[in-house]
Design a protein that fits this description.
It is found in: Cell membrane. Pfam families: MFS_1. It comes from Acidocella aquatica. This is EmrB/QacA family drug resistance transporter. Helix content is about 75%, strand content about 0%. It has about 500 residues and is an all-alpha fold. It is globular, with a radius of gyration of 24 Å. The C terminus is likely disordered. It contains 21 helices and no strands. It has 2 domains: about 190 residues, MFS general substrate transporter like domains (Growth Hormone, Chain: A); about 240 residues, Up-down Bundle (Growth Hormone, Chain: A), CATH 1.20.1250.
Length: about 500
């Protein structure tokens, strides 16, 4: 292969990876605008995020099978083309139902981009050049979340929220055509098989459970027949998947993986990381725009430092790990840094200085980057080499599940707690309150007048929502601290081999 051809393939592969990484954050700052355009509630607009993540989670596992069955280049190009078309359809959506359906398609096609791009780079570069190639690939996938919020804010403010999806079209066309022209097809095996029963059952369990979380608050949870039906479907899917895994000679997931203690603990940690990382992003975009009244582009600028913090954390932690610093110490440091950032967020108000927003974002991004490298290393270090590829798929699945569940749970709690706090605060205010009978409060917030009652209700609603946001940040802080004791059960190999984490998917920084 000529050097020019290898370079062109690398550019296309990095662009494909950046597409998937960029889309994980670019839409967050545009959520309030989508919410207004679609006449959706706060929890309904979160479906735009969770539908993408759930679809990506479900379709990550069969990526290897599909590439082997139909050819990697053919499958890669189809995945890019499908992602590009789905992005255009998202931009053209006229209702919430349409955009959620097209985001599902986007997630289904986008799930394959990261693992396929890694595989292609490993094939086209000799062993001695794989390190720099993967560093370039990592930079592309890491810079996406850094520029995503700023680019999304700029596009939304100067054009429309629809352009956060349209921007994928030219990039996708360039990457897809480049791979089609320059990347040779690999051998494919028509005889390869997949446990479709196990895959379908797991997909049913995940999809039904996510629908339950997304619609539970709106439908008053188990007082709704729909929610009870979704709970039954989730349980049925999990039962079928468990039985199929136990009885099938070649199950969808290899059960031997779950006998490894490090792997199980790693799944718990990556689930926790995913839930905190994406739930925080989903909360901060509307908080900055609705509570603090920042323009969308300003909100994007204040979200961008998280990605910078992640890059610094990845680089620093990688160097410390190479010097045999304890992985337990590194992960514990990352968790404590993340908890400190959440503690800062717990005390935010609409008058919080921008400096505090930037510092908290950098610290939280740093914590994610600082945790990921030692976590991936210990998770895969004690597994047999032949199981690491499958383990990487499960690792990505748990991260995506954590992300979608975290967004759904914090969104539902935000709505519920805001209503509860509003009732508590309103109950303490009467026309006979002395603070409302004198001065400016009497003039503008007098509950005895219709105008004063409306202004007072708006003020109470704002305070109730701020408390609800702070409660969400507090809940995530508790989960961060609760994960610390698990570090005591991690087995630390005498020799830490960084290459053992190469099968793991690269993190998608906040």
């Amino acid at each position: 292969m000529t050097e020019t051809r290898r370079t062109l393939i690398t550019v296309c592969v990095v662009l494909a990876t950046s597409l998937q990484a960029l889309d994980a954050t670019i839409a967050n700052v545009a959520l309030p605008y989508m919410q207004g355009a679609m006449s959706a509630s706060q929890e309904e607009i979160n479906w735009v995020l969770t539908s993408y993540i759930v679809a990506a989670a479900i379709m990550t596992a069969p990526t290897g099978f599909l590439a082997a069955r139909f050819g990697r280049t053919r499958f890669f190009v189809v995945a890019i083309a499908g992602f590009t078309v789905a992005s255009a359809l998202c931009g053209m959506s006229q209702s919430l139902a349409e955009i959620v359906i097209f985001r599902l398609l986007q997630g289904m096609f986008g799930a394959a981009l990261v693992p396929l791009s890694q595989a292609v780079l490993f094939d086209i570069y000799p062993i001695e050049r794989r390190g720099p190639a993967m560093a370039l690939w990592s930079m592309g996938s890491t810079l996406g979340p850094v520029i995503g919020p700023m680019l999304g804010g700029w596009l939304t403010q100067n054009f429309s929220w629809r352009w956060v999806f349209y921007i994928n079209v030219p990039v996708g066309l360039f990457a897809g055509l480049g791979l089609l022209l320059f990347l040779r097809e690999t051998k494919f095996d028509k005889q390869t098989k997949l446990d479709w029963t196990g895959f379908a059952a797991l997909s049913l369990a995940i999809g039904a459970f996510q629908a339950l979380l997304d619609r539970g608050e709106m439908l008053n949870w188990f007082n709704s027949y729909e929610i009870m039906t979704e709970a039954c479907l989730a349980g049925l899917g999990l039962y079928i998947f468990s039985v199929q895994s136990a009885l099938s000679p070649k199950p969808f997931l290899t059960l031997a993986l779950f006998t490894d203690r490090n792997f199980l603990i790693g799944l718990v940690f990556i689930f926790t990381m995913g839930s905190i990382m994406f739930a925080t992003l989903a909360l901060l975009a509307p908080y900055l725009q609705d509570m603090m009244n920042y323009p969308v582009i300003t909100a994007g600028i204040y979200l961008a430092p998280r990605g910078i913090g992640t890059i610094v954390g990845l680089i620093l932690c990688g160097r410390l790990l190479a010097r045999n610093v304890s992985v337990r110490l590194l992960i514990a440091t990352g968790l404590i840094c993340g908890a400190y950032a959440l503690d800062m967020m717990m005390h935010w108000t609409p008058s919080t200085a921008p400096r505090s927003l930037v510092i908290a974002g950098i610290i939280q991004g740093f914590s994610f980057g600082f945790i990921y490298v030692p976590l991936a290393t210990t998770t895969f270090a004690t597994l047999p080499a032949e199981l690491r590829t499958e383990a990487a798929g499960i690792f990505a699945l748990m991260r995506n599940l954590g992300s979608s569940i975290g967004i759904s749970v914090t969104g539902a709690l935000l709505v519920t707690n805001a209503q509860i706090n509003h009732a508590i605060l309103a109950a303490r205010i009467t026309p006979f309150d002395r603070t409302l009978q004198t001065g400016a409060a009497h003039q503008f917030l007098n509950p005895a007048t219709s105008q004063g009652a409306a202004l007072l209700n708006a003020a109470i609603d704002q305070q109730a929502t701020i408390i609800a946001y702070n409660n969400d940040f507090k809940l995530m802080l508790i989960f961060s601290i609760a994960a610390l004791p698990l570090l005591l059960f991690i087995r630390t190999p005498r020799t830490v081999v960084l290459q053992s984490s190469s099968a793991a998917p690269h993190p998608e920084p906040a």
